[in-house]
Design brief:
Length: 255
């Protein structure tokens, strides 16, 4: 497929731009209010508050997208509930929200810089997200694998979400997959659940110019242990990319 920045035909109307502005004002205020409420919840319930606050915030963001932007998210397949790695196509902020909201005990492997985002970056740490220092290469991978193993032993892992391409991509764009997800799979023996998306068809990479419609995230059959590293990486990339292409074609992206 041909990678493009504006996959949905037609120019944004002035009202759609107003809707975008109202949406961002709404979620900024909601983030402040939910964050303040969350501090109280964490004082009351330190054990479960780290997941409860993101539960409310994620659900509210998706509702706000429906209210202001007429943008809905359809979840296909079966979101996992067991300890696993969730490897997803990444096109925009919407797929982060949608995948995280769909699973019961989410956490992410994410750039250290994301953890510094006011309010929700701090709650991401409390929810169990794992920061990665990309400058440390293999040492960073070993440290993360060790953290995953410790959380599995303590029964605190849940669904660990990883973006194998390492960055957002435009609809129709493919990038080489980084080998971290394969390294963590080999080190832990966890299933890997692929996720295909077409979210970039409606929500641009930079976040402005969001359009109405029905975005789709699709949880695909898990890839269990067995295949060697290289075979696994090929299977994972093929599964995610081919199914994401299918979803984007449904939304109107031509080859």
């Amino acid at each position: 497929m041909r990678a493009i920045d504006s996959p949905v035909p037609g120019r944004m109307t002035p009202w759609q731009w107003v809707q975008n502005v109202l949406f961002y004002i709404h979620i900024a205020l909601a983030t402040i209010l939910i964050g303040a409420w969350g501090l109280v919840i964490l004082l009351i319930d330190r054990q479960n508050g780290g997941q409860r606050v993101p539960d409310v915030w994620l659900a509210h963001l998706l509702r706000a997208a429906r209210w202001h932007l007429r943008l809905k998210v359809e979840v296909r397949g079966t979101p996992p509930r067991h300890d696993c790695l969730v490897a997803a196509k990444h096109q925009c902020f919407l797929d982060i929200i949608a995948i995280a909201e769909a699973v019961p005990r989410r956490s992410f492997i994410m750039k250290r810089e994301v953890m510094r985002i006011p309010i929700m970056g701090w709650f991401a740490v409390r929810a169990g997200c794992i920061p990665i220092d990309r400058t440390k290469g293999k040492d960073a991978m070993k440290a993360i694998a060790a953290q995953i193993a410790r959380r599995m032993e303590a029964g605190r892992l849940g669904q660990l979400i990883i973006y194998p391409e390492g960055t957002r991509t435009r609809p129709g764009e493919r990038r080489p997959y980084k080998h971290g997800v394969g390294t963590f799979r080999n080190a832990t023996g966890l299933d890997v659940v692929p996720v295909a998306v077409n979210t970039g068809m409606f929500w641009p990479r930079k976040g402005w110019g969001i359009r109405p419609g029905r975005a789709v995230i699709e949880f695909l059959p898990a890839i269990g242990p067995g295949a060697d590293h290289d075979a696994f990486m090929i299977e994972l990339a093929t599964t995610i990319e081919d199914n994401s292409d299918r979803l984007m074609a449904e939304a109107g992206l031509s080859r």
